[in-house]
Amino acid sequence: MNKKKVIRIVVTVIIIVLIILAINFVLFNILREENESNDSHTNTNQTNNENTNGDVATVYMTTDISSEALMNIYEALAWQPEGKVAVKLSTGEPPASNYLDPKLIKDLVQSVNGTIVECNTAYSGSRSETAMHMQVAEDHGYTDIADVDILDTDGFMSIPVQNGDQLTEDLVGTNFANYDSYLVLSHFKGHAMADYGGAIKNISIGLASSEGKSLIHSAGESTTSPWGGEQNPFLESMAEAGKAVSDYLNNGQNIVYVNVMNRLSVDCDCDGNPAEPDMHDIGILASTDPVALDKACIDLVYEADDGDSLVQRIESRNGLHTLEHAEKIGLGTQNYRIVSIDA
Questions:
Q1: Are strands 115-118 and 189-191 parallel, antiparallel or unpaired?
Q2: pLDDT (tens digit, 9 = 90+) per residue, 289-325?
Q3: Quick one: which of 217, 171, 222, 169 has its CA closest to 192?
Q4: Is the peptide bond preceding residue 95 cis, with omega within 30 degrees of 0?
Q5: Rounded to whole angstroms, how far apart are CA atoms 108 and 70?
Q6: CB-based contacts of 323, cutoff 8 Å, min separation 6
Q7: Under the phi-then-psi rule, with left for phi > 0, alpha for psi from -120 to 50, and beta for the rest, what region is 181?
Q8: Cα separation of 334 and 223, whole Å?
Q9: 3-state secondary structure the chain
């Protein structure tokens, strides 16, 4: 073998070795960046989910949206209702809102011998008066599965708000006091004013009489008009009204929460012609803590590849502030762990 050929072989080997070293160097840096990104993501989640006392709420989850799955996730809560049970939901504004399907909730509602409860709206529409509202409940199939009680048919009652920044009282339907335990079934979705609707909105705006709805929207300024209030005081008022409800129900012992994450429109069930959802269904979540439950649902929306529209709606009017204030006043914690009940 001549000298030139040996040199060519040596040079070729050196080049190959250099190429291999370069590839290894690139791969090493890619893996290091991924690990740093994952560590950063984990630390951010832990920071975002921590509250001052370190409590961690359990949020149960299933990706199955069915009557059987709804029963299973309720049973995972191991909650025993006392006395007469109310099932709070939104009856949905006609003609095409995304209210919970009666076939989905029938078995659960009947298993607790529950009465479906709602309050009249503060805006003109098909649910602003009891007679019309009951017709909507019938048209939407709710009277076929349970008794329905419009709680503010005979007016409102005042329950105290302790240490509120905006409210001193919450005005709920008079019949609110007729029930000992509340099972809160919420269709999670967006909302034009609150940015999102989940458990907290369902027990605040949802359980408020028409006068109470105006009081919350106006941050304590009016019982006759829900329009024109400032945004952050409105969001804080929702949290404070929710806390008043929880306090009234044996300091939260007599109330539990289930959020159904399907038909995830940017618009609320109070919108009779909501935008068509452009993201996939996610599942059913449940907790004894409404703050942790809503936070978990919001996090799942943020993590979804197709959740941009709903994320934009949530952020459009500072919707996350509701969670911040709710945690501050002791309604619950944003620190949670998800426990899957799926096999």
A1: unpaired
A2: 999 999 999 999 999 999 999 999 999 999 999 999 9
A3: 217
A4: yes
A5: 7
A6: 200, 291, 294, 295, 298, 334
A7: beta
A8: 31
A9: CCHHHHHHHHHHHHHHHHHHHHHHHHHHHHHHHHHHHHHHHHHHHHHHCCCCCCCCEEEEEECCCCHHHHHHHHHHCCCCCCCCEEEECCCCCCCCCCCCCHHHHHHHHHHCCCEEEECCCCCCCCCCCHHHHHHHHHHCCCCCCCCEEECCCCCEEEEECCCCCCCCEEEEEHHHHHCCEEEEEEECEEECCCEEECHHHHHCCCCECHHHHHHHHCCCCCCCCCCCCCHHHHHHHHHHHHHHHHHHCCCCCCEEEEEEECCCCCCCCCCCCCCCCCCCCCEEEEECCHHHHHHHHHHHHHHCCCCHHHHHHHHHCCCCHHHHHHHHCCCCCCCEEEEECCC
Q: Which two tokens stand for residue 1?
A: 């073998």
Place of tokens 């909507």: 136
Best CA proximity match to 281, nearest among 187, 213, 149? 187
Q: What is the pLDDT of residues 192-240, one digit of tens each?
A: 999 999 999 999 999 999 999 999 999 999 999 999 899 999 999 999 9
Tokens of 310: 């709903």
Say what the pTM is.
0.85
7, with CB counted inside 10 A (0-12, 13-18, 19+), is: exposed
Tokens at 229, concatenated: 């209030």
Cα distance between residue 310 and residue 296, in whole Å:
15
Nearest Cα residue to 248 out of 129, 311, 160, 313: 160
Tell me the two tokens of residue 339.
Answer: 């426990």
